[in-house]
Amino acid sequence: MVNLGIDLNGLSLKNPVMTASGTFGFGEEYEDFINIDDLGGIVVKGTTLHHREGNPYPRMAETPSGMLNAVGLQNKGVDYFISDIYPRIKHYKTGIFVNVSGSTIEDYIATAEKINELEHIPGIELNISCPNVKEGGMAFGVHCPSAVAVTEAVRKVYKKHLMVKLSPNVTDVTEIAKGVEGVGADSVSLINTLLGMAINVEKRKPALSTITGGLSGPCVKPVAVRMVWQVFNAVKIPIVGMGGIMNAYDAIEFMLAGATAVQIGTANFIDPTVTIKVIDGIKDYMTRHNISDVNELIGGMIIE
Amino acid sequence: MVNLGIDLNGLSLKNPVMTASGTFGFGEEYEDFINIDDLGGIVVKGTTLHHREGNPYPRMAETPSGMLNAVGLQNKGVDYFISDIYPRIKHYKTGIFVNVSGSTIEDYIATAEKINELEHIPGIELNISCPNVKEGGMAFGVHCPSAVAVTEAVRKVYKKHLMVKLSPNVTDVTEIAKGVEGVGADSVSLINTLLGMAINVEKRKPALSTITGGLSGPCVKPVAVRMVWQVFNAVKIPIVGMGGIMNAYDAIEFMLAGATAVQIGTANFIDPTVTIKVIDGIKDYMTRHNISDVNELIGGMIIE
Amino acid sequence: MKKVELLTVTKNRRINKEYVIIHAASNEKLPEIFPGQFVEIKVENGPNTFLRRPISIHEVDESKNEIILLIQEIGEGSRLLAKLREGDTIDLIYPLGNAFSIPSKGSKALLVGGGVGVAPMLILGRVLKENGVEPHFLLGARSKEILMELDNYEKIAEVGVTTEDGSLGIKGFVTDHPLMNEKLGEMEIVYTCGPDPMMRAVAKKAKEKDIKCEVSLENLMACGIGACLCCVVDTKDGHKCTCTEGPVFDTKELKEW
Amino acid sequence: MKKVELLTVTKNRRINKEYVIIHAASNEKLPEIFPGQFVEIKVENGPNTFLRRPISIHEVDESKNEIILLIQEIGEGSRLLAKLREGDTIDLIYPLGNAFSIPSKGSKALLVGGGVGVAPMLILGRVLKENGVEPHFLLGARSKEILMELDNYEKIAEVGVTTEDGSLGIKGFVTDHPLMNEKLGEMEIVYTCGPDPMMRAVAKKAKEKDIKCEVSLENLMACGIGACLCCVVDTKDGHKCTCTEGPVFDTKELKEW
Ligand SMILES: Cc1cc2nc3c(=O)[nH]c(=O)nc-3n(C[C@H](O)[C@H](O)[C@H](O)COP(=O)(O)OP(=O)(O)OC[C@H]3O[C@@H](n4cnc5c(N)ncnc54)[C@H](O)[C@@H]3O)c2cc1C
Ligand SMILES: Cc1cc2nc3c(=O)[nH]c(=O)nc-3n(C[C@H](O)[C@H](O)[C@H](O)COP(=O)(O)OP(=O)(O)OC[C@H]3O[C@@H](n4cnc5c(N)ncnc54)[C@H](O)[C@@H]3O)c2cc1C
Ligand SMILES: Cc1cc2nc3c(=O)[nH]c(=O)nc-3n(C[C@H](O)[C@H](O)[C@H](O)COP(=O)(O)O)c2cc1C
Ligand SMILES: Cc1cc2nc3c(=O)[nH]c(=O)nc-3n(C[C@H](O)[C@H](O)[C@H](O)COP(=O)(O)O)c2cc1C
Ligand code: FES
Ligand code: FES
Question: Which key words are in the record (chains A, B) (predicted)?
Fold first, then answer.
């Protein structure tokens, strides 16, 4: 028997495999395919203080080994989440994280305060890296002072696990990771999508209604693994790694680079059962390599 | 007949298709496959003041729709280029650019001064964005003050076309583009490689001897197109776009986003005749779309 | 219940230079499938076919547990699908989406398909007939060469045809056909699937005559199961997912239709 | 002169559970090909096979303008190649790299291949013999099941065999075979291709007896034509490209060999 349990700065997860926000709905969308309780954790769709319609269609474009999205945080607001969705999903025996976004620091605070009251939500993922909204979002996450300010403010009102989701669209991701660690983030998750763009050449028009959008999928994996490794060498809090994970090998790559847990996003679209395959694949790998505890993989890359 | 000729801030190229530094040797490597004179321009391998052995093997890893490289500017130095290579290639009837790199500003200046003397080299591409060297390279290109300083210094000694190659590993590429435009760059080229990394999971070792390396190929195209478009909206000097171009459609995408010319890199490895196919494909597209002058494509994306 | 499953290709028949019909058999009893529903198919081995492709269910053969798909070769994904051979496996998520509504017994319905949009009309026609509704097909294409084989439709009901070049049926667009004009008033409902301009033209005619019109939209999809929110359409009720709340919508619900 | 060309697969024969032999025919007369040279082959339709794969030229059939490749299924690329069918086209850049040197007439040469490293030894053995050199093959494998078919080699010369499990020939590694011990002193030259540890062990024995040793390296390659500088090996003369200045190197040139 191998141990798959990990500790996220005091919060135990039964295994290191989580789902990424915006790619797994509220878990319910995947109930036909897998048993949600088998997952280490799920991060539900980005939630804001108020209802948001999101961006106009078209919102996605396929790219080589990846996709662009410009959903723009479409959601019915935190109150709807609490009244309608939370009661339906709170029974999941997995770590449920709410991904919180906002246009102003006040928005973030107000949303986090409300979620703080929910018994079955052990943590939030502070989304300061959404590239698809005009105000807030990534604007917070690409500059250290604002990233620190919003984290600090939310830390004051939010008492449970505070994970901060970092943007890859920066010169130095370690600066921001250290900044949010300094003001009390319990963990960092990375990467959110890379800012990208595509043009329909025949129509000579942008592929997305918003012109630019967020790039995800295997194409971003090398950048994501590099950033996880850089952050691993810069901070002490646990890292949740993501960006292009398609199989157990990819997940292990992130752990070897320094991630304590991983999130799987776009791959869920290709194979709604991928998360379970990744968990099984990690077990197989551990057995094959004679590793009894998954924690041994964390930062386990051998440098000669 | 369609016009393919473009003007790069006073420098005429017979068509907008160039090759990217480090992927096309000195042109000679491709003579068996294509007629070099058919190209708009070629940028030869990164050249430094002194001989460099480059990084240890392994220097490359395949990634989804792309590759990582860690060549590290292996070259025999500018004097060898002038004495041995230049005489062999100066007869090419295409715009030959030398990609110049260095560890210090003095290196850049000394190299550029020497190349300034070469009659058949109409321009240099100032590489302030190589992610694969310990000193200099990308360190110059990711911060505006140093990018400006090296460009300004080289501008003083280099009298012909000065193209500055920008790094994508930055929070705001427009800041740096505007900075180098301000001190006399004749054009900017982008993107150099994205900093990435891969781990061999079975061996638990980094795939590259240098751990991190430069990501190129179709996987980076959405990021590259986005940056070209951002820079197009920020500067007046021409832009040479690159990153993942595999075919004429990709090249046109860059031009619609704002590039006056394009460079093709990694695709040469997959198909050594790709450049010619791209030139032909642009002609076909223009005929099909009733466009008589390729310059009409530049920045021609229609935003509603 | 949706599922992800490997099916085996039992037949791949080219019907003209643009279209193939693929039969794919499940080892299990097929789940209940309603007209208008679709599958998300994984295109193996395509460097540029990262996402699944949504394809309507053209027909089902319950006796063989087969799903039948009509595929138009348009890009890399569909071209690779068209190359599938007997015995190859395909990875499907299905059945997805809502379904066309079935009007009351004895009523008449017009089924207007253009191009590959005819795909869901075959199963719809059959099911309507089984439910005592009188279906009328109206199929449009650019030219006779790329029109579907009409036999299967004709087995179910009368088939009106338009071609843009006049090579078969009425010359012009579907909206030029008598079924869309003189006969439209008799219909309880009009269903349409095809190119956007065609569907809008059909919807407009239906609206003028105040006849219920259901369209099947082909929005770009990433997940097909309501998780990504990429496939939205603007409705009077805000953004709705085409993959779960559609692909079939009553045009009355839609904004700007 | 190197060229990029579409060839047609004329035969794809599985020789055991790990290896296939593919024949690919050109429409034109083959360029001159030397033993030790290789091709860069494009793996179509692989989502994770972006770069070409370097594969040694196993043999050529000039009468049919065929290039023959021996392929070991090891990852996604080689698995897709192994699935090629007669009539499929493959996109090759060839011929690439330098070649093994040919010693003077009448001398003896030992050709040591391990695993898929036997690939260039067949053409080398034939050409040596044609040039009046006496070749001796020594082929190693993990087990009999995955050893090459020996007929083609035996037609040219005597074949020594080692298997790690002793299922054929001498049990052990190639360096345990008499050809690498008692007989080594008779050889003018030793050629070797195979796993790195094997080649190093062979090179060490050759060095001890002061016999010239040429190795064929399998460094990772991106371009195969000297443009990318990814495939370098550390020589006493600095970094050299395995794809143009190799893949064959005299071990004396190499650092740390
Ligand atoms: C609900 C639904 C049902 C459909 N039913 C059928 C059907 O029965 N038969 C059929 O042949 N086609 C059907 N389509 C369209 C089909 O999904 C696309 O034609 C197909 O995805 C194109 O893939 P490709 O790789 O061949 O083309 P690409 O090269 O990817 O693109 C060619 C064109 O197809 C469009 N396209 C690409 N990806 C998608 C996508 N994921 N969703 C929608 N459009 C896309 C592009 O915008 C482009 O204009 C349906 C689409 C939807 C949404
Ligand atoms: C000059 C030369 C001649 C070769 N001759 C043969 C031959 O005759 N027959 C044969 O079966 N194989 C030969 N190889 C090795 C062959 O290129 C690799 O096994 C093949 O590229 C693996 O591809 P894959 O997609 O199946 O495996 P992958 O899944 O890509 O990788 C499997 C393993 O192969 C290695 N590999 C991957 N790509 C390359 C690459 N471009 N170059 C070298 N190694 C790689 C990886 O490090 C990994 O360990 C030769 C290699 C070289 C450099
Ligand atoms: C369609 C889509 C919607 C997303 N929505 C959100 C979101 O609401 N909040 C967020 O923090 N990240 C969002 N993301 C980013 C993912 O959570 C993840 O960071 C990114 O996709 C990289 O991982 P992947 O390559 O595994 O998808 C979204 C991604 C996609 C593809
Ligand atoms: C093997 C390799 C070597 C490279 N060497 C250089 C170099 O010496 N100087 C430079 O400015 N860029 C170098 N580059 C970057 C390319 O010129 C180009 O900016 C990048 O690869 C993106 O374009 P592509 O996706 O078309 O390859 C190199 C890229 C590769 C793949
Ligand atoms: S396609 Fe993902 S929600 Fe509809
Ligand atoms: S593989 Fe590119 S130089 Fe050898």
Answer: Cytoplasm, Flavoprotein, FMN, Oxidoreductase, Pyrimidine biosynthesis
- Put simply, the answer to whether C45 touches D47 (Cβ < 8 Å) is yes
A264 touches ligand 3 (CB under 6 Å): yes
Amino acid at D80: L
Query: Residue C123 is part of a domain; what is its CATH number?
Result: 3.40.50.80
- Chain A residues in contact with B286 by the CB 8 A cut-off are none
State which residues form the domain around D181: 108-216
- State the smallest CA–CA distance between residue C8 and chain D in angstroms: 18
Q: How many whole angstroms from D52 Cα to the centroid of ligand 2?
A: 10
* CB pair distance less than 8 Å for A199 and B301: yes
Q: What pTM did the predictor assign?
A: 0.96
In this structure, the answer to whether residues D116 and D53 fall within a common structural domain is no
* Tokens 């968990």 sit on residue: A279
Q: Kindly tell me if the per-residue pLDDT of A228 is higher than 70.
A: yes
C189-223: per-residue pLDDT in tens? 999 999 999 999 999 999 999 999 999 999 999 99
Distance from residue B249's CA to the centre of ligand 3 (Å): 28
**Token pair listed for B290:** 């009733």
| Contact (Cβ atoms closer than 8 angstroms) between residue C184 and residue C178 | no
* Pocket test residue of B52, B166, B173, B192 for ligand 4, highest count of atoms within 8 A of CB: B192
- Asked whether residue D31 is assigned to any structural domain, the reply reads yes
In a domain, D254, yes or no: no
How do residues B41-88 score in pLDDT, each as one tens digit?
999 999 999 999 999 999 999 999 999 999 999 999 999 999 999 999
Query: Domain total for chain C?
Result: 2
Query: What's the CA-to-centroid distance between C54 and ligand 1, angstroms?
Result: 6
Residue B301, CB half-sphere, CA atoms under 13 Å: how many?
A: 29
* Cα C67 from Cα C64, distance rounded (Å): 9
Q: What is the ipTM of this complex?
A: 0.95
Q: Where are the alpha helices (DSSP H) in D143-213?
A: 151-154, 196-208
